[in-house]
Structure formats: structure tokens, C-alpha cells
Amino acid sequence: MKIRSTFLSLLLLAAPGIGVADDIHPEVSSKYSIDLGVFFPDRRATLSAGVNSREGDKIDFADEFGLEKHHDVFALDFGWRFGEKWCLSAQYFETSGKAATVLEEDVERNDAVFGAGSSVQVSLGFTLYRALVGRSFGDSERTDFGIGVGLHWLELNAAIAGDILVDDGVSFSREAVSADAPLPNIGAWYKYSLSPRWAFRARADWFSAAVDEYDGTLLNWQGGVDYRLFRSAGMGVAYNSFHLDAGVDNPKWYGEVDLDFEGPFVFLSVYW
After folding, report:
1. Average pLDDT, whole number, for the chain?
2. DSSP code per residue over 214-257
3. Structural domain containing residue 252
4. Is-contact 263 44, C-beta < 8 A?
5. pLDDT score, position 84
6. CATH code of residue 73
7. d(CA 217, CA 250)
8. pTM of the model
9. Mind listing the pLDDT tens digit for each residue in 72-90?
10. Mapping DSSP to helix (H, G, I), strand (E, B) and coil, where does residue 26 land?
11. Residue 212 · residue 181 · CB < 8 Å
12. Total structural domains in the chain?
């Protein structure tokens, strides 16, 4: 309901400018833009956590513990064109989930044995913040493409709780890991005004590096179209794919994480 109310409020703000007076879609020509929408990804999360090495057992949160694979995610994109050729973009999305299951067989995690027949609860949370500064190389009013460098801030936490088997019976145990860090990235984008009403856009972000306690690869790409409803607002749909494969080495977590989010992104655009 909150997302729907926000959509309607933004449309009402844009309504006084109804009509398409310009020949170029504002996705290409506007100074500021905001995309507010919902990401509907298929989610896959596999993690491992070891005590003295990265050789801990891998945990598939969906297959082993029933964590929902399909999950709605709120997402926000912001763009600012400053100067003739320079721009700043920022993105945010957050996802979390919980699940409970009754184990059909014993599951061992870091010397803790969750016994068959016991109830186990799992939780997973992931947050992404991203900013990128780039330069446009387009030489046409209808085209905008460029490259830039930026920074991600990733936050990840996961937990498993339930009854474990011990020498003198059964005891409750909770295993939890968390990590957060800034990571650099290289980004590129392409936008094309098909008409005053329609625009095509695509972007990709990538890094593969070792930074402090992290090493791994991140790849995120998106492609879609934006339809202009009013002078200052429109709506669109895109396909978004996000993949993170990283090793973590810090006091809270020594292990690996493999995350995939892939699916449609439906959004409302406001530009001015």
C-alpha cells in the first residue's frame, strides 16, 4: 500500500505537465531522474562458513530450508546530470526473508548437528547501496552512452536456529554470520530515445578484485524500456540480473557467499 501511495503521489505531482511537447524522451535529456519500483527476482542464496578455513559446508537456503525463491524487492534509482558530459547515479535495494522447516534428516553445520525431526528457522538479509560517477560520450540528442567508476556498499546477514544434538541430549543453538564492506565497480550505460514517448535503456556494473577481507566478482546488468505518460513522469519495465560470488575473511565470517537475483523490475519514472 505504501508503494502504491507513493506512485500515485508522484503521478499527481507530474500531472500539470500532461502532454508531450519535446521531441526527445526526457530519459535521455533530463537533468534529474528518479525510478521508484518493485523488483520481482528469482532468488538463490548459497553460503558457507568455516571455523578455520573456507571449507565449511555450503548451505542452500531455498533447497535445504525452504526459503522462498520468489521475493518482491523495493528498489530505487536516482540520476543527476551535471555539466555537459558528467553524471551521478545512485541505486538502492534491500531484500530479506525468513523460513521454518522440520528437518527430514540430520544437518551438521560447524560441529553443530541439527537433528532430524527438529524445527529449524533460517533468516537472510541483503542490502545494496551503489553510487557511480561517469562521463557521457554520446554525440546525438537521441543517444546517451558512457562509462564511469563507483562504489558499492553491501550488507549481508544470515542465521540458522534450532535444536541441536549434544552428548547429554538436545540443546537450542543459533548460528549467525554477517558482513558489510565497500567495494569498487566499473559501470557503463546506454540510452536511446525511440520517440517522445518511448526510450530504451541498458546498463551494466562489474567488479572482480580483492579488497581487504573480500575477494570475488560482482556482475549486475539491466535492460528495458520507459514509456512517457506525462511531461515529467512515465513508467517502464526492465529485466535485471544481479550476481555476487565472494570470499569473506573477517572475525565474524570466514567463508563464501553466492547470491543471484534475476527477474523483472517494474517502475515509475519522474524526470525534471
Report:
1. 78
2. EEEEEEEEEEEEEEE-SSSEEEEEEEEEEEEEEEEEETTEEEEE
3. 2-271
4. no
5. 83
6. 2.40.128.90
7. 18
8. 0.76
9. 788 999 999 998 899 999 9
10. helix
11. yes
12. 1
